[in-house]
Write a structure and sequence with these properties.
Layout (H helix, E strand, L loop, with lengths): L1 H14 L5 E5 L27 E6 L1 H6 L21 E2 L4 E3 L6 H10 L1 E4 L2 E3 L2 H9 L4 H9 L9 H13 L10 E4 L3 H9 L7 E4 L3 E4 L4 H10 L9
Antiparallel strand pairs: 1-2, 3-4, 4-6, 5-6, 7-9, 8-9
């Protein structure tokens, strides 16, 4: 077993890094459960990061390096500005059999999860992760629109993108606000119920009020009419 782990280490850490083998890899947590019967391992999510290694394939470069092939001809890099030969499938897979330029692969991996050598999979989780990081769905749509197939996006993918876009509209950032603390709850209630001051603030908790920066000067004037002073910041 130790020898097997050493072999996996060499293949995964060195051969794959050098580009000699292609690997299929998933999250190792929960990838296997054939060790649950072992004492002390029943609570572990994984034995090692190699649990996520599903398959290893010797590629043309590896075949040449190990003497299994007489020559090696690297695949030419895509021309600058060339259209990406990708195909979008109804099951949310994006297939690029001829490979992608490094910049294109990085863009696609920002929105999708790589599930095979030339396959990326879109999901709600992957799209929301990209949106959370500040990426825009229009960036992905432009990339997919450059597909050489000329086909329209499948309805399932269009619906997935629309659903992800709708989730960005459920909460909006309206900018910063002033948080004001009153001496007690009664003071906060009095200000919030005032006809002028109350229209410019919102109660936050028992003793706090929230005021938009644009409303602060008018709110300070309304407080002054109530006999309260909110000093101007210097």
């Amino acid at each position: 077993m130790l020898q097997g782990r050493y072999t996996l280490c060499v293949l995964f850490e060195y051969a794959a890094t050098l580009g000699l083998v292609d690997v299929q890899y998933i999250d190792p947590d929960g990838a296997r459960d054939d060790f649950r019967h072992m004492w002390g391992a029943d609570w572990l999510e994984r034995l090692s990061r190699y649990d996520g290694l599903l398959a290893i394939r010797l590629n043309p470069l590896g075949a040449y390096a190990t003497g299994r092939a007489d020559d090696y001809r690297p695949r030419p890099a895509p021309a600058v500005g060339a259209r990406s030969p990708v195909r979008v499938l109804p099951n949310f897979d994006i297939v690029a059999l001829d490979g992608l330029a490094p910049a294109e692969a990085l863009l696609l991996e920002a929105f999708a999860t790589r599930s095979a050598d030339h396959v990326w999979t879109l999901s709600t989780a992957s799209l929301l992760k990209a949106l959370h990081a500040g990426r825009g769905l229009d960036e992905l749509r432009r990339f997919l629109a450059r597909s050489d197939t000329g086909e329209e996006l499948p309805q399932t993918v269009t619906a997935l993108l629309a659903d992800a876009a709708s989730r960005t509209e459920k909460v909006r950032d309206l900018g910063t606000c002033h948080l004001l603390e009153c001496v007690d709850e009664a003071q906060a209630v009095m200000i919030a119920k005032d006809r002028k001051a109350g229209a410019l603030c919102s109660r936050i908790g028992r003793e706090h009020l929230m005021v938009a920066p644009s409303d602060l000067p008018t709110f300070r004037a309304a407080l002054l009419r109530l006999g309260c002073v909110l000093p101007a910041r210097t």
